[in-house]
Amino acid sequence: MPSSLFRNGEVGVIYDPSDLTSMFQGRTGTTAAAVDSPVGMLLDKSQWGGKTYAQVAAAATEIVTNGGFDTDTIWTKGSGWSISGGAAIAVAVPAFTVISQPYVPVAGRSYEFTLVVGSLTSGSVRAGFTGGTVVSFASVSSAGTYSFVLVADAESTSIFIGPPSGGFNGSINSLSVKEIPGNHAVAPTDTARPILRQDGSLYYLEFDGVDGCLVTPTITPGTDKVQVFAGVRKLSDASLGILAEFSASADSNNGSFYVSSPLNGSGSFYSFISRGTTPIGAVTTDVAFAAPITNVLTGFGDISGDLVTLRADGVQVAQSTSNQGTGNYLAYPLYIGMRAGSSLPFNGHLYGLTVRFGPNLEASQIDKMEAYMAKKTGVTL
After folding, report:
1. Pick from 318, 375, 373, 357: which is nearest to 216 by CA?
2. Strand, helix or coil at 318?
3. Among candidates 93, 262, 101, which has minimal Cα distance to 165?
4. Domains of the chain by start residue, with CATH
5. Is the pTM here over 0.90, yes or no?
6. pLDDT digits (tens, 9 = 90+) for 47-71
7. What whole-number distance in Å separates Cα of residue 364 and Cα of residue 381?
8. Do residues 151 and 217 touch, judged by C-beta distance below 8 A?
């Protein structure tokens, strides 16, 4: 159901903790997530058209030229590297000496690397993007086929294969690199990674109320309307907790929004704040939403329409028609679990999150999305 909201090119995210193939333990996608493991990378499914990760990766365009080393072309070879017999051969390759080809990825986008190591007799080898002083990579130390997802940085200018310290003797049979579309969220540090949990048939990310956070690259909406759907269990009302915020602070940045859980420690239990040039909030103080509690939250922002709406479990619980000022939602990262990755941590569980920038939805679409999120969350509407 969520993917149908993006069929006309709408911008946003779909995060689904019940899809283990869309999560990785590390901040580079080297190890698949598992129950009770940290999640360092959470893939956005909004541009996948309802397909699985495997289907999306299989259909993506190959970026590497001569990735099977069929000819001795395109690759620039450092000391000890040669290409023959459909492989890149490494003989006493010194540390940090690579075989590479030029490619400038889009900064902030994510790419799947599939590296086939034919043999490895000593040392280790890594593949990734490099350029300037920045290197994004994943390393392996034995023969085999390895897949991992890397987020490109702004200085990347080439794709490389080569050893870290210690050198490398062995062979590389092939390298494939494909862009995985979406606004994928990554933990800013290893300690900020939320934990994937399972409760019966339900899966969720556990945010510890201390430093749990994920953040996307910059998203550019190009519209003044947004819809947010979240499956949430709130564990504390002691202080403001940011569930999701577009920009480092919607209190001060125009063209932004946030969902808080709660808004403060004084009885404002949930809120949705939207801002053109003026922040306006829809806030519920109903004690029925005091922590601990599990809910499906829905927030609608319409800057030009001067409308901010908050719904809980399919029912409108707050709304404001005050003037939000002017403009569209602007280009910012989306922060999940904290404000700017540094303050106001959310203490609770996230069962799913969909953010869509685009025209206002029809009532039937809203009902279907809330029913979908209720099933993911274990809530009865």
Report:
1. 357
2. strand
3. 93
4. 2-53+183-377 (2.60.120.200), 61-180 (2.60.120.260)
5. yes
6. 999 999 999 999 999 999 999 999 9
7. 15
8. yes
